[in-house]
């Protein structure tokens, strides 16, 4: 390869609120800056104040917001001429691939979601897969790669490793649900679980359309923190992360928790089995089996401190070795270079 300056990467997403994709984009953009790769994060539409935009601006990563229609994206691509467009999410992926192809700009797309969705989301998911041939696809897990097709490269989600003083203290509680309160994440299942756990404290971090339903079902058994700007100030107090999702890829929240020395218990869904190793980093039970989930939480709660500390250390070590920025970003950089050579 020649010594020409690396191409500017535009990271394109359409986002109204913080979530897993937004966390990933923040990690990726910061990693590219550290690797001396020019990057700009492009929001397809301006939906108002956004924590990700603030985070990026605070560390000097350039951003721009488009008008939320295909014409504005087409104009931006024609005028800005990025060396590479990296899309995240349904809408950004579909439009970015189509217009990138027309503009002669190579496109890399990361496929994050494993759920089929319903209504308009199901349509977007179908179009997302149909247009994957117009890009170099990345899948965050093997199950998602199987949906996208044989061309998909598997590069898992990744996270920054937190400093030692930000890690969980390994305390025996609470058991926490962290995520959007929507059907695919199963917050209703977590409320039902909480009712089975007796005196073990349970907490919910997040908000969404099922908030009222979950609060009513919880009957005071859950402490609701709502949508927190960042989990950085909360991880230290959490003892166990619980994943009750009906559909998943490789949840970033799981990687974040484990990086903070927090083990995970959950239903065996998506690529969770790649990181939640029974007896090593947590517990997995059959999908929908609440009794087995409650038993696993009880087992964790009864562990002696030395056993709990060893479990927590294995969690952090696994993330550092396989799911940290240092472990995964080189794979994306190599893919960018391959796309550049082909282009």
Molecular structure report:
With about 350 residues, the protein is an alpha/beta fold. The chain has two domains: about 10-160 and about 325-340, Rossmann fold (3-Layer(aba) Sandwich); about 165-320, Glycogen Phosphorylase B (Rossmann fold), CATH 3.40.50.2000. It is about 40% helix and about 15% strand. It is built from twelve helices and 13 strands. It has helices at about 20-35, 50-60, 70-80, 90-105, 120-130, 140-150, 185-195, 210-220, 250-260, 290-300, 305-320, 325-340, and strands at about 10-15, 40-45, 65, 85-90, 105-110, 135-140, 155, 175-180, 200-205, 220-225, 240-245, 265, 280-285. A seven-stranded parallel β-sheet has the order 3-2-1-4-5-6-7, sandwiched between helices. A six-stranded parallel β-sheet has the order 10-9-8-11-12-13, sandwiched between helices. The longest helix is centred in the last third of the chain and has 18 residues, at about 305-320. It is globular and about 60 Å long. The mean pLDDT is about 90.
What is the level-2 CATH architecture name of the largest domain?
3-Layer(aba) Sandwich
Please state the structural category.
Answer: alpha/beta
Could you tell me the radius of gyration in angstroms? 20 Å
Specify the oligomeric state: single chain
Number of domains: 2
Q: What descriptors fit this protein?
A:
single chain, 343 residues, alpha/beta, Rossmann fold, seven-stranded parallel sheet, six-stranded parallel sheet, 41% helix
């Amino acid at each position: 390869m020649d010594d020409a300056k690396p191409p500017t990467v535009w990271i394109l997403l359409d986002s109204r609120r913080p979530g897993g994709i937004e966390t990933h984009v923040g990690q990726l953009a910061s990693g590219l800056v550290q690797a001396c790769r020019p990057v700009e994060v492009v929001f397809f539409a301006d939906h108002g104040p956004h924590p990700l935009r603030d985070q990026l601006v605070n560390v000097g990563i350039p951003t721009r917001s488009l008008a939320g229609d295909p014409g504005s994206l087409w104009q931006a691509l024609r005028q800005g001429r990025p060396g590479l467009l990296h899309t995240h999410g349904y809408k950004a992926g579909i439009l970015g691939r189509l217009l990138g192809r027309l503009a002669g700009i190579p496109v890399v797309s990361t496929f994050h979601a494993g759920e089929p969705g319903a209504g308009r989301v199901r349509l977007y998911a179908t179009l997302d897969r149909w247009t994957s041939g117009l890009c170099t696809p990345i899948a965050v897990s093997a199950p998602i790669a199987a949906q996208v097709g044989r061309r998909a490269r598997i590069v898992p989600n990744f996270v920054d490793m937190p400093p030692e003083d930000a890690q969980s203290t390994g305390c025996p509680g609470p058991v926490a649900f962290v995520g959007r309160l929507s059907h695919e994440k199963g917050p209703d299942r977590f409320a039902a679980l909480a009712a089975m756990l007796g005196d073990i404290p349970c907490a919910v971090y997040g908000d969404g359309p099922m908030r009222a339903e979950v609060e009513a079902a919880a009957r005071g058994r859950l402490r609701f923190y709502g949508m927190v700007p960042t989990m950085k100030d909360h991880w230290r107090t959490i003892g166990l992360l619980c994943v009750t999702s009906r559909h998943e890829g490789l949840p970033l929240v799981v990687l974040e928790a484990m990086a903070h020395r927090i083990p995970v218990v959950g239903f065996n869904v998506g690529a969770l089995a790649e990181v939640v190793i029974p007896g090593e980093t947590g517990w997995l039970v059959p999908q929908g089996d609440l009794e087995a989930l409650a038993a696993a939480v009880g087992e964790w709660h009864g562990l002696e401190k030395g056993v709990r500390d060893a479990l927590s250390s294995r969690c952090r070590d696994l993330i550092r070795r396989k799911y940290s920025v240092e472990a995964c970003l080189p794979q994306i950089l190599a893919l960018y270079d391959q796309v550049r050579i082909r282009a």
